[in-house]
Amino acid sequence: MGDCLLGMTVSDLFSLPSSAVLIAVFELGWGWIVVITGIFAVIEMLFVKLGIYHQIWWKTLYTSIGLLVFFPFSKAWFRRLNCRHERVLSFFTLLAILFFSRGQMSIIIFQYFASGKVTIKWVEALGVPAFMLRIPMTLYVAILLTILIMVRARWFWKAAAIAGFLTIDLVLFKMHIMQVRTYWHFVYLTVTNVLVLLIGQAFVHLVRKNEVPDTSAS
After folding, report:
1. By percentage, how much of the chain surpasses pLDDT 90?
2. Cα–Cα distance measured from residue 136 to residue 27, given in angstroms and rounded to the nearest whole number
3. CA 207, CA 92: separation in Å to the nearest integer?
4. Each residue of 107-144: b (16+ CB within 10 Å) or e?
């Protein structure tokens, strides 16, 4: 499990985003998109063949189809974001950044530090992996922080949100939904939420600073 999560973290944090940025920034065409997708597919098949990575229900074909959609979509999204600062586009861009940033940080906390886990017995009885239960927890944090950043809320409200997240974690702990091995777990989660907030602030500042006016209507 640790090796699988390490591979997923490296892929999600470096390989896929770097490839998407490369395609978007240099405006690479379908030829390059197909080649890069093929490289990822071959690497995945090689890892399965060597026993490094095990597929349960996932297929390499799904990876290929997903990347053939993801890369052009990222390219179009980047072009639009770089052209004009639109609140809806900026909102969902920021939401995606905060969601995946916190998601990857949560993997480090829950799996690598092994400081705690989230468990709901009736959900796990349905065959849902334990780590999937962290997705809604990450999503609500990302949504609230995105809203606070986009409306330019005062730091008091942002600090209140961070404190609120900690309170919810403590309630989940009392309800035995979140199990912890050390109380440092709550410190890790709080620091993670602060870092995610700072990442969001930096992104919005960068977008507003480098906004290029849309002159197409003139």
Report:
1. 29
2. 34
3. 13
4. bebbbeeebbbbebeeeeeeeeeebebbeebbeebbeb
- With 0-12 CB in 10 A as exposed, 13-18 as middle and 19+ as buried, what is 90? buried
Q: And the tokens for 190?
A: 């709080």
pTM of the model: 0.71
Tokens, residue 13? 């944090």
What are 120's two structure tokens?
A: 């709901």
Neighbouring-strand partners of residue 118: 178
- Distance (Å, whole) CA 54 – CA 129: 15
pLDDT digits (tens, 9 = 90+) for 147-173: 999 999 999 999 999 999 999 988 888
pLDDT in tens, 181-216: 777 888 888 999 999 999 999 988 877 776 555 554
CB 52 within 8 A of CB 4: no
> The tokens of 189 are what?
């989660």
Alpha carbons within 13 A on the beta-carbon side of 121: 2
